[in-house]
């Protein structure tokens, strides 16, 4: 790899050749000739180039006396001096530089035709300047036999270090590097090339690399690799190759063309890595993600993925499908008696019995603990699922489990559900199979039960509810309400949470917990939350300010929004709400998003924070979140889960947990909001611990938009000097009564639904 000094040498050598030609011209001019005028013109041209050259140029005697110097040389040797004529080169050097120049001149005086050296000029009032001099000895006296090029070498050492570092990186890279000429012949390789392929550099030089070969020859002009290299100057992809010992392997290669002065390819640089280890690692990760390590069966994630695909195929082909849930009977007693290692061996024995009992097309999975499941696609008759269940029970009865010379009879409770008879969605089938399995266990175990709607009326209604919900939009049955929040320091409203409900005809407003669970299992959560953002923004714009413009309005955002590919639509919807300037946008995100966030989640949340969105961590304290994860996300506040407040008054341990959560939130510079406040005693304790905000039925039931606006306009300032509990009691009595009155008025006057 050429250094910068080597790259600069052609310029210096060209200037020396120019000097030699100029000297010959001077001799020719002094000789009578018919072309004297032409020679004089050429000499003048060379002298002009001499003066304007970008490098320093000197004419010297063997003793270093300067006969002539151009402007560049004067600027290098002594910036403040106009002429160097008559001065000696050593006058401008000191210390080691003077010794270097003396040795240089001595070598030329002994007859050397060419010599170079490097030295440092110590210039008064300025930093030392590294200089390089290259000198040609013409051997003729004249003004002096020496013609020298003087170069300012400052920065050359850093450039050389950079080039050296680049070369070192290539030498020590784990990726193989091959450099070829324009005809694809190898001119250089790095050590990693030898490590991966087994070929030494000597064996590779002059050969055409495998990426350019096909059937023993260089690729034809129509090959896609060469076509792309000519069109774009680069190519990358996965190719098959062989090592020196003949072993095949896959490599990921990148090829870049290095152009010449005319735009053609002068060199090709190919970098590649061995994919063998990566494929093994990929297979290992897939095994970990989709396989149960103890039994070798599919795990829960694999079961759900296969069940989704099997359901799609069953709907398309109109074939029934079976799902079986199995639970080992009295496994806890066996596990306690045999120990964990014995329990593990029992699970492995049971897994083998299941695999021996199913059809070749069935999938067996361990979904956790001692629970297993079987997917039976393409059932020709419904009775096939019952026969498989019977096979399992017969296999267990015929082959007892043996441990340390003891024989143990193993039983199982089996639940069977069928598509489309029992349910049409993945969630419904899972629930039905689980319900049927528990029916078998309640009946004494070691038996199989088909799902019956009478055993689980909730599951029977699930599909009907899901179907009705899909039409609720068009029927204007969805209801938007607002749950007020208050600041505990003054009990004024600080914001509200948007709550979506369903006023189902003939049934009234569906219980919020039932509605939320239904939405989660029907796959409609993201669509509904997008609709909610858009609708609330439009309503707020139509209503005008009305006390809402400065209000913080919180929207619950479910975890699926943060999966790869789903964040962008959410950000667009939030940006539209921000541009409307109808209220301050707050997003509530679940802890699971932070615990298992994807690579792009945190930067996306940071962009939202920069736009003015406030971010709240919902149900804080209900998941095992690491502190480093909490500090990595640009949050505004944390929201304490309602379950942590239920025992706040009577349980010292619960109070300690809540107190610690509040202190932790403040330590991270976050506000703390308590959800589900029901009693004045909870308010007193939360205020004592420094909690910032609270919401719950104690303060207000969820309100319509009109009722909330009225409440904001009517709320009076609290009297000074009251204690927190007194203020709470006084204000709550007034606020709740006003809220109820407003709510009744709005319900009488407003149309049903949204």
Structure in words:
- The protein is built from 24 helices and 28 strands.
- With about 750 residues, it is an alpha+beta fold.
- Helix 21 links the parallel strand 26 and strand 27.
- It starts with a helix and ends in a 5-residue tail after the last helix.
Question: Major sheet, described briefly?
Answer: 8 strands, mixed, barrel
Strand order in space, largest sheet: 20-21-23-24-25-26-27-28
Strand proportion, as a percent range, falls in 15-25%
Segments where pLDDT lies below 50 for 5+ residues?
1-8, 214-219, 456-460, 716-754
Q: Report, as a whole number of angstroms, the end-to-end distance.
A: 74 Å
Mean pLDDT across the residues is 78
**Which percent bin holds the helix content?**
40-55%
Number of strands: 28
Shape descriptor reads elongated
Helical segment count? 24
SS class: alpha+beta
Radius of gyration: 42 Å
Task: Describe this protein with a few key phrases.
754 residues; alpha+beta; eight-stranded mixed beta barrel; five-stranded antiparallel beta sheet; 24 helices; 23% strand; elongated; disordered N terminus; disordered C terminus
Quick summary:
The chain is built from 24 helices and 28 strands.
What is the topology?
Elements: H1 4-29, H2 36-52, E1 56-60, E2 66-69, H3 71-77, H4 96-109, E3 114-121, E4 129-137, E5 146-152, H5 156-172, E6 176-181, E7 186-189, H6 191-197, H7 201-204, E8 213-214, E9 217-218, H8 224-232, E10 234-242, E11 248-259, E12 265-274, H9 276-290, H10 300-317, E13 321-328, H11 331-357, E14 363-368, E15 371-376, H12 383-398, E16 401-403, E17 406-408, E18 412-419, H13 426-442, E19 447-450, H14 457-470, E20 478-487, E21 493-504, E22 508-509, H15 512-522, H16 525-543, E23 552-556, H17 567-580, E24 584-590, H18 591-595, H19 601-610, E25 614-620, H20 627-632, E26 637-640, H21 652-667, E27 671-675, H22 680-689, E28 693-695, H23 705-714, H24 724-749
Parallel strand pairs: 18-19, 21-23, 23-24, 24-25, 25-26, 26-27, 27-28
Antiparallel strand pairs: 1-2, 1-5, 3-4, 4-5, 6-7, 6-12, 8-9, 10-11, 11-12, 13-15, 13-18, 14-15, 16-17, 20-21, 20-28, 21-22
Helix pairs in contact: 1-2, 11-12, 16-17, 22-24, 23-24
